[in-house]
């Protein structure tokens, strides 16, 4: 593994630096506002969950180019010396408005807006997009798993198949925000104070001469946390052996905590396993299932009457297999006090610094209005000032607080928007002042750039 990258200023695209060079040479240092938003819903999505803001704020607050960064850029032979000298003292000095982590938002709504001298705001684009895109994608996917599980515990099992070590950590964090009970990822547990779970793999079972010997060995060392993997050879026979261990633990004044199923037809198998424990008088043994689960498989096995108390959710959640990315964009909407936009087919942008107002009816989400930040409308403003002149306005939030925020928000979202397939489209409107300014700017751009009158 490559050594850890502590300074991430170079985690940008080359064209950001070439544009920045031009801005510098032409003395373009005026404030610019960039807006981050998602253009369309991925398949079968009706909402998004805000996640990743914490990493963005940490990055912006510590943004700088160190000498090794500058030496590397110098060796590329394409940047003027005076520009590199300028970069040596560059820090992020801008303001950030953002939707707090854990909140629900919808397409076209600004997730965050950055206002800073244009070079600063431009250079941070790739990092901001990368972080918010990934963590929002995973938080949204994981929330659908929680919804499908209908109150059953979920544990993140994705580490070994996420696309990168950092991704494994962020998946654990994002899934915990939306209601997962914990993670198998021990480092994530340490970093984010997330509960960690796990017992054994099939290799543990096969390393012993007999399956029941492996069960006994484990229960002897971990009598308070004995969860036995019972499908290495035959799930039902394994369940009978686990029942023997359960009775032995009862005789010692302890109890078998649970068993794990990792293969096979989960619904009928779980029913048979439950019956084995009932007949053995072990009525409180938890049945934990893993193996290819996501929201669709969880919903399917529960519809079939599966006797499953908790799920380990891994690969398909950790990479958001059915929708691994969003159509996210970070676009200039104002420069030096002048509202600007893009008119490209299918990629038009909304001008100006904005706010999103949320209207509720009987505590249920009714509709959102994207407005100019100066507009005064009914409803709760979602975008909150989180950074001023390059300094954070609040300390890192405990994940439990973000988690509570999500649960409150999600409970207020109608079931029709949560459907796993073909969800309803939530109503998002434009505020009157934004509509007016948008039309004015479009007219001016068409007149000036396209020769229309």
Question: How would you briefly describe this protein structure?
Answer:
The protein has 453 residues and is α/β, with parallel strands linked by helices. It contains 17 helices and 19 strands.
In the CATH hierarchy, what is the superfamily of the largest domain?
A: nicotinate phosphoribosyltransferase
Class of the largest domain in CATH? Alpha Beta
Percent of residues in beta strands: 15-25%
> Could you tell me the number of beta strands?
19
Secondary-structure-based class equals alpha/beta
State the low-pLDDT regions, or none.
none
Alpha plus pi helix count: 17
What characteristic shape results from the CA principal axes? elongated
What share of the residues lie within helices? 40-55%
Question: What is the straight-line distance between the termini?
Answer: 59 Å
What do the pLDDT scores average to? 96
Could you state the oligomeric state of the chains shown? single chain
The CATH topology of the largest domain, please? Answer: nicotinate phosphoribosyltransferase
Numbering strands along the chain, what is their spatial order in the largest sheet?
13-12-1-5-3-17-18
How would a crystallographer describe the biggest sheet? 7 strands, antiparallel
Domain module tally: 2
CATH architecture label of the largest domain: Alpha-Beta Barrel
Q: What Rg is obtained from the alpha carbons, in whole angstroms?
A: 26 Å
InterPro entries: Aldolase_TIM (IPR013785), N/Namide_PRibTrfase (IPR041525), NAPRTase_C (IPR041619), NAPRTase_N (IPR040727), Nic_PRibTrfase-Fam (IPR007229), Nic_PRibTrfase_pncB (IPR006405), Nicotinate_pribotase-like_C (IPR036068)
GO biological process, one term: NAD+ biosynthetic process via the salvage pathway
Enzyme class: ligase
GO cellular component, one term: cytosol
